[in-house]
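INTERNAL TRANSFER SHEET
From: sequence group
To: structure group
Subject: CysJI operon transcriptional activator

Please process the attached sequence and return the structure record in the designated field. Keep the field labels unchanged so the import script can parse them.
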Amino acid sequence: MNNQDWKILDQLSRHLTITKAAENMQLSQSTITKRLKQMEADFDVRIVYRGKKGIHFTPEGEYLAQSARAILKEVEVMKDTLWNMEEEVRGTIKIAVSNFLTSFMIFDVIGAFKETYPEVDFQITTGWSRDMYERLRNDEVHVSFIRGDYQWRGRKHLLFEETLCIASEKPIPLPELPAAPRIDYQKDAKLDGMIRKWWDENFIDVPRISMVLDKAESCREMIRNGLGYSIVTSLVVRNMEDIHKTELKDRDGKRITRGSWMFCQEKSMDLKAVRKFVEFVESYNLSRP
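Return from structure group:
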């Protein structure tokens, strides 16, 4: 058994498919299968059964997968501790980033940070904000970048605030909004709830949703081509000077906004690389979307 074998068990237990595990580890499926058979021979137990929809762990396999996760964590702690003893800032920072923030800011931030600290590496996970938040809560990453207001007692930093707005090719009078074709896209539950709340406070009729897209970027192009309006955050329609934007306001006339945050586990700040990165982001100049 080597470190890669433990990683294979960990990935298989997380995804329950050889295809996904191989993809995440950048290995061939045949390599995963070969190593799995070798592990079964070494331990003289059946680790998994193959089914039509993936793999199923045996009780012995479940035990080995849990042990693999613990061993990988211990190796990670040892590496962090050793790197923390050195004068040079080095190590691997694990971050979780919401999908949209990945394209908007994170690569610029990491690029700027690595100019000063080239020996620091990153493991980046992307997805919905709620999932990135849970990864931090479960101690799977050091730092999370998320959109929306989540409860967090650890270290946190407000990156910027976005305004919710109605975006359309031409101005649409508010009373005419329910009859106008609306373009929706898949978004996180918190943002969807904010939009629903505003709509219910202003209209009796349900919106006329003409299409639902999987990405905000596609929504931008549909708006640009005059195929309808959408209710989005200002970040989605940034740099679109040809698009009309009407800010949403609550009953008190205040702009409806939501923040994007950096959250960090307090204990992770004991790691030199993480501490330097968090402090770097806190001082990094991010202009308001």
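Handover comment: The CA atoms of residues 177 and 207 lie 8 Å apart. The chain has three domains: 3-75, 84-159+266-283, 162-258.
Transfer complete.
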